[in-house]
Amino acid sequence: MYELDEKKYLSLLLIVPILVLLFLFNQYWKRKKQREFGDLEMIQKLSHEKSVFKSVLKFTVLILAFGFLVIGLVNPKIGTKSETVKREGIDIVFAVDVSKSMLCEDVAPSRLEKSKQIVSQIINQLVGDRIGIVAYAGSAFPVLPITTDYGVAKMFLQSMNPTMVSSQGTSLDEAIKLSSTYFDDDKKTSKLLILISDGEDHSEGASDAAEEANKLGLKIITIGVGTAKGGPIPLKENGRVLSFKRDQNNAVVVTKLNEESLKVISKNTKGGYINGNNTKEVLEYIKNALDNIEKTEFEAQQFTDYNSQFQWFLGIAFFLLLLDVFFLERKTKWLKKLNLFNEKA
Fold this sequence. Notes:
Layout: E1 2-4, H1 15-37, H2 40-46, H3 52-74, E2 76-89, E3 91-97, H4 111-124, E4 130-136, E5 140-147, H5 150-158, H6 172-180, E6 191-197, H7 206-215, E7 218-224, E8 231-232, E9 234-237, E10 240-244, E11 254-255, H8 259-268, E12 272-275, H9 279-291, E13 296-308, H10 310-325, H11 333-338
Parallel strand pairs: 3-4, 3-6, 6-7, 7-12
Antiparallel strand pairs: 1-2, 2-13, 4-5, 8-11, 9-10
Helix pairs in contact: 3-10, 4-5, 4-9, 6-7, 7-8
């Protein structure tokens, strides 16, 4: 198993094709100028010690040295030992509403962005728990399966938007049903679904879905994002508001927080509901809830004792640079015999 310590330096490899193009252009320009100067065959006889192969070889060595230098900066690490690590925690699935009503800005910066902030902050205070992510609107979409990699979870979280789900509207029952499949029925691990939404539900089976989830031992905590007063749904292009969503009568649609539907869901699973407009209060509420949920011990295989390997790549890079110093651009006796690139001595 390996990992890359400084992935940001990989972008430097994009310079390689640019350098190759510049080298090829330089070779073309030289040949063109030689033709303009006089007879190409005569010029080659006058500068018979000049080797095209040596120029290509020197450039190739420099490119390889640059490549190894970049890899050295990235610092690849290899896990030398696999260990079974015991953790205590619970399985948590975050179901985030990504319907268009979540674009409403009655909560800054928007309901959806506020939801992402809440989930990210909750993840930051987790230790040992396994998490998964579900996105939903008119239907539900699996974003991330159960994992202990919080960094990957937050990366997927930030990419969530209304275009992820083709079916618009809000179907809380679909979110609950899909989230329920994330949990392993054979294990006695405590199961928690944290469902975040503005509560607008265009389905009729959310309460029934919650009751079924309760039979599976799943507890649901709902977080309402939005205001009772509500607001319009902005339609943006390149960050600029062009207009607001309108109904069939051309009236601006006003979306409001519906706390009642969220409270019913949490009540049916002996969970809880909290308004998500105050992030600090939400974090405290979730922390207290997690402290009161029984933790389960489970095992996970992971590689440990990661050893840095940068020194090998830097060593090769400096060796190639040193080697390049001894490569002259004139022909040597063995090159003359090989007559590479049809070069005449």
